[in-house]
């Protein structure tokens, strides 16, 4: 019997193809994983190496399209045939048959029943769609061109001063380019989903590798490639979707400002015979609700860091050897990292378009804050850390704001850093959590502005502050800060 027994199997519930060469005991098998389904059958072949693509050229060997457990029953007979065919002096004895047969698992009968009810391998009614494939290729070319155009615009925009007519013109062009790219990516995602569904239907629930169906190998490769393309497209479109939500919030704010300007021209006392005022108020309420929904979706997706994370908790925070570490005193820079990383996630030209989740991390902000606000064994000066953020992270600016302004910013989708002094909030278990002095991040507010959502970097998920009341914030704060793009 040959030393190598190539095996082709599909594990139940798996999403990959695998081809193995079973080797003698003590030798690791070689394996190739594919996207698509996996085979749940075994076939014995000669010692000569072959891939799935070689099945159409086989001579004498054959593939058994059988469920895994049932195919073991066939292995012994195939092994004997292979031994005789390859010129062995005698067929395998009963001991060899027994060794092969012992590989059967306890689920043989169950797998036999599964085999009896398997659907056909091929479904010819799910034909390929050349027009869709052609459109996918065309979209890929258009996306590549648009991405490069947007990057060029962004480079030019970043080189300009924070204000001026040239910057406003370039920003409008970049906004239009982003909208165009978003539309292209959304269409590509839709078509990729259709193509993947079509490929899955054409391979069937139990795909098989056989001389009668060599096209299954190609379909498996196509399916794997399309799934990878969809994953890349989803990563690419994620920051664009976030940016577009921010863009919509800006447009809504402009509409609300226009309504407020028009309402200011109306009489203070409503005229029952003139519905204009009532209609304007109704429209304003609708826009506010739309804006609040968009803002909640944005701020609720912020990536929360913990200052005691083992990846950086022990890192010294400050330049002096006497300074404590991030876990002990790094709530300020950790809060800063939460906000900066949040802003980067809606930057379509940044690393976020490649699927990177942690772009700005606490070690980076701690290194910056070590010379911008750090007071060893005392804490961090919030004004110094935030108002100088542009020196460590170009393209951003920070400023102190009031609690009322913080409410407005939260309702526009922005996060707000705050420093509590003797504050008490509620954790997710409904209990109280208090801090003597601690930086945290506000990431939401309820409809009447009485309760705020909190990202607390100083405690684990079970005990950290989840919400805090306006009343508590009013009497127990030492400042609120906003960071925004320039």
Q: Summary?
A:
By secondary structure, the chain is an alpha+beta fold. 47% of the residues lie in helices and 14% in strands.
CATH architecture of the largest domain: Alpha-Beta Complex
**Name of the CATH class of the largest domain:** Alpha Beta
Mean pLDDT: 79
Spatial sequence of strands, sheet with the most strands? 6-11-7-8-9-10
Helix/strand order: EEEHHHHHHHHHHEEHHEHEEEEHE
Gap between N and C termini: 73 Å
What is CATH's topology name of the largest domain? Cathepsin B, Chain A
- Large-scale geometry: globular
Total separate domains: 4
Share of residues in strands: 5-15%
The CATH H-level superfamily of the largest domain is Cysteine proteinases
Low-confidence stretches: 1-125
- Work out the helix count: 14
Write up this protein:
Residues 136-202 form a coiled coil. Keywords: Coiled coil. InterPro entries: Peptidase_C39-like. Residues 1-30 are annotated as: Disordered. The chain has 486 residues and is an alpha+beta fold. The chain has four domains: 5-116, no CATH class; 130-251, no CATH class; 254-298; 326-485, Cathepsin B, Chain A (Alpha-Beta Complex). Helices cover 47% and strands 14% of the residues. It contains 14 helices and eleven strands. It has helices at 68-85, 94-101, 108-116, 130-158, 165-203, 215-264, 276-299, 326-329, 331-344, 362-369, 382-387, 389-392, 403-410, 470-475, and strands spanning 5-9, 16-22, 30-35, 374-375, 379-380, 396-401, 416-426, 432-445, 451-455, 467-469, 477-485. It has a six-stranded antiparallel β-sheet. β2 (16-22) and β3 (30-35) form a beta hairpin. α1 packs antiparallel against α2, α5 packs antiparallel against α6 and α6 packs across α7. The model is unreliable at 1-125 (pLDDT under 50).
């Amino acid at each position: 019997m040959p030393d190598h027994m190539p095996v082709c199997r599909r594990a139940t519930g798996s999403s990959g193809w695998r081809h193995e060469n079973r080797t003698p005991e003590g030798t690791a098998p070689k394996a190739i994983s594919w996207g698509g389904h996996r085979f749940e059958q075994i076939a014995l072949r000669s010692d000569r190496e072959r891939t799935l693509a070689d099945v159409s050229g086989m001579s004498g060997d054959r593939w058994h399209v059988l469920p895994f457990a049932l195919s073991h029953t066939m292995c012994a007979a195939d092994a004997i045939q292979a031994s005789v065919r390859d010129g062995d002096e005698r067929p395998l004895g009963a001991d060899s048959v027994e060794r092969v047969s012992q590989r059967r698992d306890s689920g043989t009968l169950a797998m036999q029943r599964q085999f009896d009810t398997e659907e056909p391998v091929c479904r010819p009614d799910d034909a390929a769609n050349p027009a869709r494939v052609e459109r996918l290729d065309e979209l890929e070319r258009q996306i590549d061109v648009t991405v490069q155009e947007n990057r060029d615009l962004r480079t030019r925009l970043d080189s300009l001063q924070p204000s001026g007519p040239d910057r406003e013109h370039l920003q409008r062009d970049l906004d239009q380019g982003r909208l165009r790219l978003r539309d292209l990516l959304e269409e590509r995602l839709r078509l990729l989903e259709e193509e993947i569904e079509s490929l899955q239907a054409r391979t069937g629930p139990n795909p098989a590798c056989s001389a009668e169906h060599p096209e299954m190998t190609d379909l498996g490769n196509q399916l794997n490639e399309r799934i990878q393309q969809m994953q890349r497209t989803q990563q690419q479109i994620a920051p664009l979707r976030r940016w577009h939500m921010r863009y919509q919030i800006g447009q809504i704010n402009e509409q609300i400002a226009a309504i407020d300007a028009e309402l200011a021209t109306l009489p203070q006392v409503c005229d029952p015979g003139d519905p204009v005022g009532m209609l304007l108020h109704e429209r304003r309420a609708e826009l506010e609700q739309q804006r609040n929904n968009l803002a909640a979706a944005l701020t609720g997706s912020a990536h929360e860091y913990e200052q005691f994370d083992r990846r950086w908790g022990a890192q010294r925070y400050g330049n002096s050897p006497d300074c404590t570490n991030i876990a002990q005193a790094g709530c300020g820079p950790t809060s800063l990292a939460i906000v900066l990383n949040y802003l980067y996630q809606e930057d379509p030209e940044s690393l976020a378009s490649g699927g990177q989740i942690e772009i700005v991390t606490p070690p980076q902000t701690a290194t910056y804050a070590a010379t911008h606000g750090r007071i060893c064994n005392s804490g961090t000066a919030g004004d110094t850390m935030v108002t100088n953020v542009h020196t460590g992270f170009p393209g951003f600016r920070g400023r102190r704001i009031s609690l009322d302004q913080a409410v407005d910013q939260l309702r526009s989708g922005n996060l707000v850093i705050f420093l509590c002094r003797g504050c008490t909030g509620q954790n997710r278990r409904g209990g109280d959590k208090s801090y003597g002095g601690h930086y945290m991040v506000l990431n939401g507010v309820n409809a009447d502005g009485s309760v705020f959502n909190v990202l607390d970097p100083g405690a684990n998920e079970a005990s950290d502050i989840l919400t805090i009341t306006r009343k508590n914030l009013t009497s127990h704060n030492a400042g609120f800060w906003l960071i925004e793009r320039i």
